[in-house]
Protein backbone atom coordinates (compact mmCIF):
# COMPACT_ATOMS: atom_id res chain seq x y z
CA UNK A 1 0.00 0.00 0.00
CA UNK A 2 1.35 3.41 -1.00
CA UNK A 3 1.11 6.31 1.46
CA UNK A 4 2.49 8.87 -1.02
CA UNK A 5 2.02 8.98 -4.78
CA UNK A 6 3.75 11.62 -6.88
CA UNK A 7 2.25 11.76 -10.34
CA UNK A 8 4.01 13.53 -13.25
CA UNK A 9 4.78 16.56 -11.06
CA UNK A 10 6.52 19.58 -12.53
CA UNK A 11 7.63 22.93 -11.13
CA UNK A 12 9.24 25.82 -12.96
CA UNK A 13 10.71 29.08 -11.66
CA UNK A 14 10.87 31.49 -14.58
CA UNK A 15 13.05 29.76 -17.15
CA UNK A 16 14.39 27.20 -14.67
CA UNK A 17 12.70 23.80 -14.61
CA UNK A 18 13.29 22.64 -11.04
CA UNK A 19 11.43 19.33 -11.27
CA UNK A 20 10.07 17.74 -14.43
CA UNK A 21 7.69 14.79 -14.78
CA UNK A 22 8.52 13.38 -11.34
CA UNK A 23 6.62 10.14 -10.83
CA UNK A 24 7.16 7.68 -7.95
CA UNK A 25 5.45 5.98 -5.00
CA UNK A 26 6.39 5.64 -1.33
CA UNK A 27 5.18 2.45 0.31
CA UNK A 28 3.62 2.65 3.76
CA UNK A 29 6.10 1.79 6.50
CA UNK A 30 9.12 2.08 4.23
CA UNK A 31 12.32 4.13 4.38
CA UNK A 32 12.83 5.73 0.98
CA UNK A 33 15.73 7.99 0.02
CA UNK A 34 15.85 10.72 -2.60
CA UNK A 35 19.39 11.32 -3.78
CA UNK A 36 21.13 13.31 -6.50
CA UNK A 37 23.76 15.98 -7.09
CA UNK A 38 23.32 19.50 -5.74
CA UNK A 39 20.64 21.35 -7.68
CA UNK A 40 18.90 18.16 -8.78
CA UNK A 41 15.53 19.29 -7.39
CA UNK A 42 15.39 17.29 -4.17
CA UNK A 43 14.40 20.06 -1.74
CA UNK A 44 12.01 21.52 -4.31
CA UNK A 45 10.29 18.12 -4.34
CA UNK A 46 9.96 18.21 -0.53
CA UNK A 47 8.56 21.75 -0.72
CA UNK A 48 5.95 20.56 -3.21
CA UNK A 49 4.90 17.63 -1.02
CA UNK A 50 4.56 19.85 2.07
CA UNK A 51 2.65 22.69 0.37
CA UNK A 52 5.43 25.29 0.46
CA UNK A 53 5.23 25.33 -3.34
CA UNK A 54 2.34 24.33 -5.57
CA UNK A 55 3.09 22.21 -8.64
CA UNK A 56 2.59 23.69 -12.10
CA UNK A 57 1.37 20.32 -13.29
CA UNK A 58 0.76 16.83 -11.97
CA UNK A 59 -0.68 15.61 -8.68
CA UNK A 60 0.54 14.54 -5.24
CA UNK A 61 -1.60 12.06 -3.32
CA UNK A 62 -1.32 11.29 0.39
CA UNK A 63 -3.43 8.34 1.56
CA UNK A 64 -5.32 8.75 -1.71
CA UNK A 65 -6.09 12.45 -1.15
CA UNK A 66 -4.64 15.17 -3.35
CA UNK A 67 -2.39 17.67 -1.59
CA UNK A 68 -2.40 20.15 -4.46
CA UNK A 69 -3.75 23.52 -3.34
CA UNK A 70 -3.35 22.85 0.39
CA UNK A 71 -1.41 25.20 2.67
CA UNK A 72 1.52 23.77 4.67
CA UNK A 73 -0.51 23.79 7.90
CA UNK A 74 -3.25 21.71 6.26
CA UNK A 75 -0.69 19.28 4.89
CA UNK A 76 0.80 18.94 8.38
CA UNK A 77 -2.67 18.36 9.86
CA UNK A 78 -3.17 15.44 7.47
CA UNK A 79 -0.06 13.74 8.85
CA UNK A 80 3.06 14.95 7.05
CA UNK A 81 5.95 16.48 9.03
CA UNK A 82 9.42 17.52 7.95
CA UNK A 83 12.82 18.75 9.03
CA UNK A 84 14.88 21.21 7.01
CA UNK A 85 18.26 21.21 5.32
CA UNK A 86 19.15 24.32 7.31
CA UNK A 87 17.98 23.95 10.90
CA UNK A 88 14.91 26.09 11.60
CA UNK A 89 14.40 26.09 15.33
CA UNK A 90 13.11 28.96 17.45
CA UNK A 91 16.56 29.94 18.62
CA UNK A 92 15.57 31.82 21.79
CA UNK A 93 12.89 29.38 22.94
CA UNK A 94 13.75 26.52 25.26
CA UNK A 95 13.90 22.94 24.05
CA UNK A 96 10.56 22.11 25.66
CA UNK A 97 8.85 25.16 24.18
CA UNK A 98 10.17 24.41 20.69
CA UNK A 99 8.34 21.09 20.82
CA UNK A 100 5.23 22.47 22.55
CA UNK A 101 4.77 24.96 19.71
CA UNK A 102 4.46 22.09 17.25
CA UNK A 103 1.60 20.55 19.22
CA UNK A 104 -0.73 23.54 19.12
CA UNK A 105 -2.16 22.56 15.77
CA UNK A 106 -3.57 19.46 17.47
CA UNK A 107 -5.06 21.18 20.52
CA UNK A 108 -8.81 21.83 20.59
CA UNK A 109 -8.96 24.81 22.93
CA UNK A 110 -9.71 28.13 21.25
CA UNK A 111 -8.48 31.61 22.03
CA UNK A 112 -11.34 32.33 24.45
CA UNK A 113 -10.77 29.04 26.29
CA UNK A 114 -7.16 30.10 26.80
CA UNK A 115 -8.01 33.66 27.86
CA UNK A 116 -10.58 32.38 30.34
CA UNK A 117 -8.17 29.71 31.58
CA UNK A 118 -10.85 27.05 31.45
CA UNK A 119 -10.38 23.73 33.15
CA UNK A 120 -10.49 21.76 29.91
CA UNK A 121 -7.70 23.95 28.55
CA UNK A 122 -5.52 23.34 31.60
CA UNK A 123 -6.09 19.58 31.32
CA UNK A 124 -5.25 19.63 27.62
CA UNK A 125 -2.08 21.63 28.22
CA UNK A 126 -0.94 19.22 30.95
CA UNK A 127 -1.49 16.25 28.64
CA UNK A 128 0.41 18.00 25.86
CA UNK A 129 3.32 18.78 28.16
CA UNK A 130 3.43 15.15 29.26
CA UNK A 131 3.63 14.04 25.64
CA UNK A 132 6.35 16.57 24.93
CA UNK A 133 8.41 15.34 27.87
CA UNK A 134 7.98 11.78 26.62
CA UNK A 135 9.38 12.76 23.22
CA UNK A 136 12.30 14.57 24.82
CA UNK A 137 13.09 11.50 26.92
CA UNK A 138 12.85 9.23 23.85
CA UNK A 139 15.33 11.40 21.95
CA UNK A 140 17.70 11.88 24.93
CA UNK A 141 16.97 15.60 25.09
CA UNK A 142 16.03 15.80 28.78
CA UNK A 143 19.40 17.25 29.89
CA UNK A 144 18.68 20.34 27.73
CA UNK A 145 14.95 20.66 28.45
CA UNK A 146 15.10 24.32 29.61
CA UNK A 147 18.07 25.35 27.46
CA UNK A 148 17.52 27.83 24.60
CA UNK A 149 17.78 26.00 21.27
CA UNK A 150 20.61 28.27 20.11
CA UNK A 151 22.86 26.94 22.88
CA UNK A 152 22.58 23.29 21.86
CA UNK A 153 25.34 21.33 20.10
CA UNK A 154 24.67 20.85 16.39
CA UNK A 155 23.74 17.17 16.60
CA UNK A 156 21.37 17.88 19.48
CA UNK A 157 19.67 20.62 17.44
CA UNK A 158 19.06 18.03 14.72
CA UNK A 159 17.39 15.73 17.26
CA UNK A 160 15.28 18.61 18.53
CA UNK A 161 14.03 19.24 14.99
CA UNK A 162 12.98 15.61 14.79
CA UNK A 163 11.23 15.86 18.18
CA UNK A 164 9.30 18.89 16.95
CA UNK A 165 8.25 17.02 13.82
CA UNK A 166 7.13 14.00 15.86
CA UNK A 167 5.00 16.25 18.08
CA UNK A 168 2.58 16.69 15.16
CA UNK A 169 1.97 12.89 15.20
CA UNK A 170 2.87 12.38 11.55
CA UNK A 171 2.29 9.34 9.39
CA UNK A 172 4.94 10.44 6.90
CA UNK A 173 8.21 12.01 8.10
CA UNK A 174 10.36 13.93 5.61
CA UNK A 175 14.00 14.40 6.59
CA UNK A 176 16.01 16.89 4.52
CA UNK A 177 19.73 16.05 4.81
CA UNK A 178 19.51 15.00 8.47
CA UNK A 179 23.18 13.91 8.55
CA UNK A 180 24.58 17.18 7.16
CA UNK A 181 27.48 18.39 9.29
CA UNK A 182 27.51 15.34 11.53
CA UNK A 183 30.54 13.31 12.59
CA UNK A 184 30.75 9.62 11.57
CA UNK A 185 29.66 8.63 15.08
CA UNK A 186 26.66 10.99 15.00
CA UNK A 187 25.73 9.72 11.53
CA UNK A 188 25.74 6.12 12.75
CA UNK A 189 23.57 7.07 15.72
CA UNK A 190 21.21 8.89 13.34
CA UNK A 191 20.80 5.83 11.15
CA UNK A 192 19.86 3.76 14.20
CA UNK A 193 17.44 6.48 15.30
CA UNK A 194 15.69 6.62 11.92
CA UNK A 195 15.08 2.86 12.05
CA UNK A 196 13.72 3.13 15.59
CA UNK A 197 11.46 6.03 14.65
CA UNK A 198 9.99 4.07 11.78
CA UNK A 199 9.31 1.04 13.95
CA UNK A 200 8.31 2.65 17.26
CA UNK A 201 6.08 5.37 15.79
CA UNK A 202 4.84 3.31 12.82
CA UNK A 203 6.12 5.95 10.42
CA UNK A 204 6.91 6.08 6.76
CA UNK A 205 10.19 7.92 6.19
CA UNK A 206 11.25 9.84 3.08
CA UNK A 207 14.70 11.39 3.28
CA UNK A 208 17.10 13.46 1.23
CA UNK A 209 20.70 12.64 2.00
CA UNK A 210 24.19 12.98 0.52
CA UNK A 211 25.85 10.52 2.89
CA UNK A 212 25.73 7.45 0.65
CA UNK A 213 26.73 5.03 3.39
CA UNK A 214 23.73 6.09 5.46
CA UNK A 215 21.46 5.92 2.40
CA UNK A 216 22.62 2.44 1.44
CA UNK A 217 22.41 1.18 5.03
CA UNK A 218 18.87 2.21 5.89
CA UNK A 219 16.91 2.69 2.65
CA UNK A 220 14.65 0.05 1.18
CA UNK A 221 14.16 2.05 -2.02
CA UNK A 222 16.06 4.93 -3.58
CA UNK A 223 14.91 7.54 -6.08
CA UNK A 224 17.69 9.34 -7.98
CA UNK A 225 17.19 12.84 -9.40
CA UNK A 226 19.39 14.74 -11.82
CA UNK A 227 18.51 18.08 -13.43
CA UNK A 228 14.97 17.79 -12.03
CA UNK A 229 14.20 14.39 -13.52
CA UNK A 230 14.21 10.86 -12.14
CA UNK A 231 17.08 8.97 -13.74
CA UNK A 232 16.85 5.79 -11.66
CA UNK A 233 14.83 4.10 -8.96
CA UNK A 234 15.14 0.80 -7.13
CA UNK A 235 16.76 -1.03 -4.26
CA UNK A 236 20.17 0.03 -2.90
CA UNK A 237 21.78 -2.90 -4.74
CA UNK A 238 20.25 -1.80 -8.05
CA UNK A 239 21.17 1.86 -7.57
CA UNK A 240 24.75 1.11 -6.52
CA UNK A 241 25.60 -0.36 -9.91
CA UNK A 242 23.41 1.77 -12.18
CA UNK A 243 25.60 3.51 -14.81
CA UNK A 244 23.24 6.51 -14.95
CA UNK A 245 23.70 7.12 -11.23
CA UNK A 246 27.47 6.71 -11.42
CA UNK A 247 27.60 9.17 -14.31
CA UNK A 248 25.45 11.74 -12.49
CA UNK A 249 27.78 11.68 -9.46
CA UNK A 250 31.20 11.02 -10.97
CA UNK A 251 30.94 11.83 -14.68
CA UNK A 252 31.06 9.72 -17.83
CA UNK A 253 34.74 8.88 -17.45
CA UNK A 254 34.01 6.90 -14.28
CA UNK A 255 31.54 4.74 -16.21
CA UNK A 256 33.84 4.35 -19.20
CA UNK A 257 36.97 3.27 -17.35
CA UNK A 258 35.27 1.42 -14.50
CA UNK A 259 36.87 3.46 -11.75
CA UNK A 260 33.67 3.37 -9.67
CA UNK A 261 32.70 0.23 -7.83
From TrEMBL:
Presence of keyword ATP-binding: yes
Keyword terms: ATP-binding, Nucleotide-binding
Domain of life: Bacteria
Identification of the protein by name: Leucine/isoleucine/valine transporter subunit ATP-binding component of ABC superfamily
Species for this entry: Kyrpidia spormannii
Amino acid sequence: MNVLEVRCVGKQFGGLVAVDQIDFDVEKGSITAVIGPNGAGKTTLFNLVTGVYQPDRGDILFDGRSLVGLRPDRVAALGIARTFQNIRLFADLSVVDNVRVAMHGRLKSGIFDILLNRRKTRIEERRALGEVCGLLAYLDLEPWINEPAKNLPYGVQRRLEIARALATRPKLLLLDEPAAGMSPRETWELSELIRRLRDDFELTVLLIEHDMKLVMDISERIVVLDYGRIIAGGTPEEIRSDPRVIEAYLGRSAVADGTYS
